[in-house]
């Protein structure tokens, strides 16, 4: 799905006809000099297009959302048009970027998180840039060993969410822990996301690995055998299958975020089931608008964007001293416990764990 913001500004064309061709009567002594000047002029024009231009393309996931006023603020501040191209969940986004190093489909990528960060880094798909504003908070969430390749923009905690109203209306006790999903009555009420394509799905898989150790595979077998539904990504799970989501589905347990209850009344998060998630922005190697790409990375750390994140995507900003919506911290509770694995451990074991997960759940 592609979303166009603002008004396109055409760039120069390169390689076309430029001016009048010298006639045969022209002095041969000027021909070589004229030819050199024409080539130099064309080269300058092409360089201008590749480094300045009027448009910046942002590749992102389907859940990306910012107010129109904030999107327009980028154009007002820089004079550049922002073109937004959405590409599935964070896992699919990471795969798309990693498969096209040096020949990107855009200029900047946003939404790759700490569970998938190693993919584009190892693929050599990112261009180094250290925005000055990162020193005010974002740098604290940098990917170890790749500080200049990805810049943190927001953070949150992936947790199971409960539709409290659904349980109350039926006089049923809701689950108290992620471990309860191994019981058939709760498994059949649950929708989860595929860790191969969904960053929340990967985070929950890592939660089970970190919390259950060698018992994580048995846990997943019991959850799936009990009737849990597994879908491709968060948008489908929350907005279509979850009973408190927009689609008013039939499952009252969903994988989402500790902050999601701030947006959805009568829901809560199981705060013993959480994994910390950080989302990053990075410049794609081979961008045709390096200058514009850097300006967009800078803008993602601006007060305008950072202040809009809680109500737009229900995540916490990474920059210091950013005001939160009134009452938001109380509705977006901090987890009691989180399962945190070092990025290097995730990178070294993710594919093995995914293979083992597929074998257990039969996907």
Concise structural overview:
It comes from Gordonia paraffinivorans NBRC 108238. The protein is α/β, with parallel strands linked by helices and 363 residues long.
What would your notes on this structure say?
This protein is an alpha/beta fold and 363 residues long. The protein has two domains: 52-155 and 278-327, Periplasmic binding protein-like II (D-Maltodextrin-Binding Protein, domain 2), CATH 3.40.190.10; 157-277 and 329-361, D-Maltodextrin-Binding Protein, domain 2 (3-Layer(aba) Sandwich). It is built from 13 helices and eleven strands. It has helices at residues 28-51, 68-78, 90-98, 118-123, 164-170, 184-187, 199-212, 216-225, 234-241, 290-300, 303-313, 328-331, 343-361; strands at residues 2-4, 55-60, 81-86, 108-113, 126-127, 151-163, 190-193, 229-231, 253-257, 267-284, 316-317. Strands 1, 2, 3, 4, 5, 6, 7, 8, 9, 10 and 11 form an eleven-stranded mixed beta sheet that branches. Helix 2 (68-78) links the parallel strand 2 and strand 3 (81-86). Helix 8 crosses helix 13. The longest helix is centred in the N-terminal third of the chain and has 24 residues, at 28-51. The chain is globular, with a radius of gyration of 24 Å. Pfam families: SBP_bac_6 (PF13343). Keywords: Signal. Residues 1-47 form the signal peptide. It comes from Gordonia paraffinivorans NBRC 108238. This is Thiamine ABC transporter substrate-binding protein.
């Amino acid at each position: 799905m592609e979303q166009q913001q603002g008004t396109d500004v055409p760039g120069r064309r390169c390689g076309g006809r430029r001016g009048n061709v010298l006639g045969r009567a022209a002095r041969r002594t000027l021909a070589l000099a004229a030819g050199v000047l024409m080539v130099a002029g064309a080269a300058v024009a092409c360089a201008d297009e590749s480094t300045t231009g009027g448009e910046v393309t942002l590749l992102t996931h389907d859940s990306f959302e910012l107010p129109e006023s904030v999107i327009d603020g980028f154009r007002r501040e820089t004079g550049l048009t922002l073109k937004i191209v959405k590409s599935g969940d964070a896992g699919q986004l990471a795969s798309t970027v990693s498969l096209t190093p040096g020949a990107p489909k855009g200029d900047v990528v946003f939404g790759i998180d700490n569970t998938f960060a190693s993919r584009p880094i190892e693929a050599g798909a990112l261009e180094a840039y250290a925005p000055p504003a990162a020193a005010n908070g974002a740098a604290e969430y940098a990917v170890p060993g790749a500080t200049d390749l990805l810049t943190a923009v927001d953070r949150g905690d992936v947790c199971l969410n409960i539709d409290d109203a659904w349980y109350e209306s039926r006089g049923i006790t809701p689950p108290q822990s992620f471990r309860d999903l191994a019981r058939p009555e709760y498994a059949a009420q649950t929708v989860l996301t595929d860790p191969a394509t969904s960053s929340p799905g990967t985070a929950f898989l890592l939660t089970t690995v970190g919390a259950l150790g060698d018992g994580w595979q048995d846990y997943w077998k019991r959850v799936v055998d009990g009737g849990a539904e597994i879908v491709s990504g968060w948008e489908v799970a929350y907005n279509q299958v979850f009973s408190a989501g927009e689609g008013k589905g039939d499952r009252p347990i969903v994988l989402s975020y500790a902050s999601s209850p701030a947006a959805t009344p009568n829901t809560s998060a199981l705060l013993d089931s959480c994994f910390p998630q950080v989302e990053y922005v990075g410049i794609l190697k081979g961008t045709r608008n390096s200058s514009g790409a850097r300006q967009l990375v800078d803008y993602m750390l601006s007060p305008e964007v950072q202040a809009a994140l809680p109500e737009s995507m229900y995540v916490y900003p990474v920059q210091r001293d950013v005001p939160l919506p009134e009452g938001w911290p109380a509705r977006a509770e901090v987890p009691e416990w989180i399962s945190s694995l070092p990025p290097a451990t995730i990178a070294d074991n993710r594919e093995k764990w995914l293979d083992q997960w597929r074998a257990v759940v039969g996907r």
